Amino acid sequence: MENLREGILLGCGNPLLDISAGVDDDFLKKYGLKPDNAILAEEQHNLFIPNSWRNTKPSLLPNSLRVCQWMLQKPNCAIFFGCVGDDKYSKILEDKARSDGVNVQYQYTQEEPTGTCGVLITGTHRSLCANLAAANLFTIDHIEKPENKKLLQSAEYFYISGFFLTVSPPSIMEVAKHSHTHNRTFMMNLSAPFITQFFKDPLMKALPYVDLLFGNETEAEAFAQEQGWETKDMKEIGKLMVQLPKENVQKPRIVIITQGSSPVLLFRDEDTIEEFPVKLLPREEIVDTNGAGDAFVGGFLSQYVQKKSLETCIKAGIFAARCIIKRSGCTFEGKPDFEA
């Protein structure tokens, strides 16, 4: 870990408190929800919160930086920016994130409570319904504070959740352009199909600065549809993603598409596709798939910031995702036994 130092990785996203509840398929249909999908809460979704979650204990929303820190076992390598309310939920979020080694630097607001996310579990599937609340009020002012600007200038790697496109595109562009100007590495996750569908404009403005793009197969398919690409073939979609316009042409874009239990696809240029098999877990060992995608990214980042090979990074991502889906929620314990 000779390449590691505090603040090497900076992430921006929506700090939300997870509230999980087991439901059935009829419940999802009633509220227009789908398994293994993520949406922003609308007015009708607020109706089921009191009934489903009144007695449910909140837990921390999956976060790639938490998993990254767990894999690294060295605190404060990762910094996180996001907006929360001044309430007990933000205290829970901060205490948990810091105990997991993440240096959280929240923007606080009095206007909204800390955001929450309903995680509706049907068997091994999950449907996410997020009420952003305070998370929606993040502003570029927070990044421009002298103490936070110093953190920005010190970081070598930047990771933006696609969900943050719904909140503060100006902040994303500030980080993206800074990364480009200083020849750092700017990474983004598509995060959910609705991001590519309803937040296409800010996504496409940021994309030329993206050096490394993550997405799963449903997100990649939705992205392709919005681009007018007449294919659902993941290999074709990945090749087209790599070729999209890029500001720093000296640093070719890398695209990684995960496919659940199917191989992870790595694209480094339009002609090279690499596949990495995912070892199947016995069904009885799968407890909760919520957070698997975040865990993959976290595992990947833990090796990437150490300048390990992309093969090692992807294997670490697969390892982390396998660990997470064996447990309820995005949780972990002990030290990871990952070997490159």
UniProtKB/TrEMBL annotation:
Cofactor note: Binds 3 Mg(2+) ions per subunit.
Keywords attached to this entry: ATP-binding, Kinase, Magnesium, Nucleotide-binding, Nucleus, Purine salvage, Transferase
InterPro entries given in the database record: Adenokinase (IPR001805), Carboh/pur_kinase_PfkB_CS (IPR002173), PfkB_dom (IPR011611), Ribokinase-like (IPR029056)
Biological process per Gene Ontology, one example term: AMP salvage
Molecular function terms from GO: adenosine kinase activity; ATP binding
Pathway this chain belongs to: Purine metabolism; AMP biosynthesis via salvage pathway; AMP from adenosine: step 1/1
Record keyword ATP-binding present: yes
Record's GO cellular component terms: cytosol; nucleus
Catalytic residue list: 294
Reactions catalysed according to its record: adenosine + ATP = AMP + ADP + H(+)
Protein name, as recorded: Adenosine kinase
Organism: Megaselia scalaris
Lineage: Eukaryota, Metazoa, Ecdysozoa, Arthropoda, Hexapoda
